[in-house]
Prior knowledge:
- There is one protein chain.
- The protein is mainly beta and 302 residues long.
- Helices cover 13% and strands 37% of the residues.
- The chain has two domains: 7-161, Thiol Ester Dehydrase, Chain A (Roll); 183-299, no CATH class.
- It has helices at 7-13, 32-42, 77-88, 183-190; strands spanning 19-25, 93-103, 113-122, 126-127, 131-144, 147-161, 195-199, 205-206, 221-225, 229-238, 250-257, 262-268, 280-287, 293-299.
- Strand 5 (131-144) and strand 6 (147-161) form a beta hairpin.
Amino acid sequence: MAVQEDEPTARLKAYEGRPAAVTGVGKDPVNLPMIRHWCEAMGDTNPAYAGPGAVAPPTMLQAWTMAGLSGQRGRTSPYTELLGLLDELGCTSIVATDCEQEYLRPLRPGDEVTFDAVIESVSDRKTTRLGTGYFVTTRMNVRAGGEPAGTHRFRVLKYAPARERPDEPRPRRPRPVVNRDNAGFWQGVAEHRLLIQRCTDCGTLRHPWLPGCNACGGPDWDTVEASGEGTVYSYVVVHHPPFPAFDPPYAVGLVQLAEGVRMVSDVVGVPHDKVRIGLPVRLEFRSCDEELTLPVFRVVER
C-alpha cells in the first residue's frame, strides 16, 4: 500500500529538480597561491601541486565555487524559498552532514570555474538526536573552460532542535562515519591504539586515512602506532551551537603528532581559554558510552 506524504513534505519535495544556482562564476580563477595555502593547511606535499605544470588538489573542487563573506551571484529564488519554507516549519537550525565529489578532469592555474546547481532531493521528515527535520541535497556541476570538471553533492540537515527534558538521559555523542577507507583507524581506537597509515612504496605517513598515498600515489600501505606525544598546532574554541551531548565552550585542536602528521581532536586537561599553540599534549582514550571511544589529547603539565 502506498503511503501518502504529509502536506509539508509534499510542499518541500516540489522543489526537487529546481535550480539552486544558475551560471555561477568562481570569484577567482584557479591559482597557485590558493593551492599553496590549501596544501599548507592540509600538510599535503605532493609535488603535483607546486611549480610549473601544477594542478589543483582534486578535493579543492568546491573551494573555487565558494561565495565568501560577500555572497555569490547565481543563487536562485527556489533554493532561498525552500530554506524559508523550512524555517516556517520550525526547522530553524542547520548542520552540514556530508558531501560527495566526483572528479572528471584536473583543474589547472588559470582555469575559469563556472557551475550550476540543482536541488537534487529533499528527504521525508526524519527524527535525529539533534532534532526533527529534513535532509536537503544539492548537486553542483562544475566546469572549467566550459568543460565538465567535476560534481559536488552537498547535504544538510535543516531541523527543529530537540528539547531536552530534565528526566531524559543525556544524549549520546554522534557516531563517527566509518567506511572502508577508515575502518582500520576506528578499530585501532577501539583497542586504544592510534594507528597512522604508512605508504609501503615511499614510506610517507598520512592522516586522515586515505585509499592512496598523497605523496607518490601508491595504493599499498601498512600502519605504525603513534607514540601519543604531540603539540597543539592550532585550535578553535567552540561556543555555539549547543548541540546535545556537547557542553560548550570547549577547545578543539589540530594536534601535531611526534610522528609528523596532524589530527583534529578535543584538547582537555585545562580550561578552554588556557589552550595555546605549542602546548605539549599526550594522547588518551575517552569512553563516551558503551559503544564509542574517542582519542583526545590532554595538556601535559610543564
